[in-house]
Predict the structure.
Amino acid sequence: MNSAKMGKTYRHFIGAPLALAFGMALTSVSMHAQAVPDAPTPQAPRPMSDMKDQVTPGLGTDSSQSSPKTPQTSSSGTQNSGGDGAAPSSRAPSAAGPDEVQTTPPELPEPGKGVEAGVTVFRTYTNFVEVPVTVKDSKGQLVAGLTFRDFRVYENNQRQQLRLFTVDPYPLSVAYVIDQSLTADVMAKVNNSLGAIQGSLTPYDDVAVFSYNNGAKELTGFTGAQSHLLTAVLALNKATGRDEGVPVNSGPLAGCSITSNGSCVDPNLQQGRSAGGPVMNIQKEIHTLNDAILRAAVELSKRPPGRRRIVYVISDGKEYGSKASAKEVIKYLQTNKIAVYATLVGDSARWGEGYLSRFHLPFQMNDNILIRYAQATGGTLEAERSVNGIEKSYAHIAEEARTQYTLGYISHQPAIDGKYRAIEVRVDRPNVEVTSKPGYYPTAQDVR
């Protein structure tokens, strides 16, 4: 046997055991490798649409929810479901438990940014409700220093979680409505007090002026509160009022107090009727207060958001002859977030008589309908008889409207259903008077 053949035979006897041993080692390694999980393979970023089960709007991510695991393919060709044998799609993420009312503080903007927060952040919700609140003590002084923990807001008897709380002053959009059907003496006091209107306002406010007697009239559209145009309008549109003596031609105060079958016993005491000749029909007093408030409210509804919308009435509150009813006007005010404030003058400002004038006698004109407007919109009234008192009331009411607490919440009701929603605001303080709007009608005017 030559050397080449001997070398080949040697490699054959030696190589076979080595190959057998190497194969057994590979088999052992392969058997042990099945117990080791595969390393995660690189994955592309998951789309945001897959996060809808993990992110709750307004609450962020839930730490108790585990992110769904991506199925992995093992060396045996089966999918790894995370070790529990169930497919990921069959395991629903844990639902967040119901939140307690006001467990987290509302939006607390920095000083000076409360108006901006209420406009730019919360206006995106069609069911966001803004509630201005005035709090006074037993002496009628404004109460300051309250926090959101002192307030409880209920809508349709269900407590709401506050989403906004600010004490920042709001700029005012004020529509002044001046009664020019007052008696001459009262009208003179009102005329002398009009110069104090601008002193109660700031350069950030804007003002429009309306008047009414037998019909509503716009004296000027909205202009700067400190503009010369407003000064000129208030000075040039002063009225003389009506005569105090009102003639009568019937009843016990008429010229003939003794009648028989509707005719005067002595025809010489009463012209017309039994004596012949023309009969004088005295025209009734006309006070179109409803029409004037509605016209002012229509202009106010066009003002931009982020402003307090106010109808300020200077009147005795009498109403007769308007085309619009008080119920219709109040609904329009509640829909457009407009409050009615007023300075009562004349008969409604007299002690005792002013209180009785709030009650409406059947078949008679309304002697003071402003109390209904103020209560339905969250405004207030002040009764003044002197020029000095009327001037001070302008400043008091403007300060009250500007420095209110502003609460905001997202209603639990459908965004827009056209139904009236009652609001109640409670303050956890003794001996305080809380003034706010008692309700509202939802509207889509703030949708953006």
Remarks:
- The first strand starts at residue 55 and ends at 56.
- DSSP finds nine helices and 20 strands in the chain.
- Residues 62-99 have pLDDT under 50 and may be disordered.
